[in-house]
Each structure stands twice: as structure tokens, then as C-alpha cells.
Design goal:
By secondary structure, the chain is mainly α. About 65% of the residues lie in helices and about 5% in strands. The chain has a two-stranded antiparallel ribbon with strand order 1-2. It is globular, with a radius of gyration of 19 Å.
Length: about 140
């Protein structure tokens, strides 16, 4: 005699598959847009996340990577003249990462490209907010 699969386990497995599929589509989308601008996916992610001056630790957290990985990416962006390291205004031990004028211009172009044919473009702004809220709840669940 076979038992029917647990409906909750089946639903969770299917949801995990959908989340993974969406994450892969987003990663592919970022990679394609990055290549069009002569960037790696990691560089594009760093530029996307540079919403203002921040520390390396802040950027690494936003990129979901270790600070040493973010440092490698920032080193490359700095060599390209897209990011500068400046003294932190309140912490002598830290540096602030700041986009240069060229970095800001490239970030704006990147954001335009990322908005085109985005994997999330099929969702209305309200649906995107609902999805964001649900994902935040799942991630921050105690």
C-alpha cells in the first residue's frame, strides 16, 4: 500500500522550485545586461546595490557575499574608475565606497537595462510589493 505524499511537503517543494527558478532567471537577466555593458554579473550587482555611500561590509551584505568577495569586485570597479574609496565620516578604520560620475552614469544605464524584459515585469507593482513582503516574511521568520 502506498501513502499519498504530504500535501504541505509537496507544496513547499514546488514553491522552492519556483523560487529557485525565479532566482536563476534573475541571475541570467543580470548576467546578460552586465555583458552588454562590459561588466561581470558581480560588478553589475555591486553597481545596482550602490544606492549611496556605504562601507564594504554594507555592500557585501547587499550583494549576499563575503566582504572579501565584495573587495575583489570593488577593486576591479575602482580600477575602471567607477568607484572610489573615501575616508568614512565617523569611523577612522572604515572606508566609504562612493560612485564616481562615470560610475553613476553606468549605474543609471544598468538600471535601465535591468528594467527591460525583467523576469518580474509580468507582475504589477502591487503584485511585486506583495511578493516582496511574502519573501521578506519567509526570510526573517524566527
Amino acid at each position: 500500500m502506498t501513502t499519498s505524499p504530504d500535501p504541505q511537503a509537496t507544496a513547499e517543494r514546488e514553491l522552492c522550485g519556483l523560487v529557485n527558478g525565479l532566482a536563476q532567471q534573475i541571475a541570467d537577466h543580470v548576467r546578460e545586461r552586465a555583458v552588454a555593458l562590459g561588466l561581470t554579473a558581480a560588478q553589475a550587482t555591486a553597481l545596482r546595490e550602490m544606492t549611496g555611500p556605504m562601507t564594504m561590509r554594507d555592500l557585501a551584505e547587499r550583494m549576499s557575499c563575503e566582504p572579501s568577495n565584495a573587495t575583489f569586485v570593488v577593486d576591479k570597479l575602482e580600477k575602471q574608475g567607477l568607484i572610489e574609496r573615501r575616508p568614512h565620516p565617523t569611523d577612522r578604520r572604515a572606508k566609504h565606497l562612493v560612485l564616481t560620475a562615470e560610475g553613476n552614469a553606468l549605474r543609471e544605464r544598468l538600471l535601465e537595462l535591468l528594467a527591460q524584459d525583467s523576469p518580474l515585469a509580468g507582475l504589477s507593482p502591487e503584485q511585486q510589493r506583495v511578493l516582496q513582503n511574502l519573501l521578506e516574511q519567509a526570510i526573517t521568520r524566527p
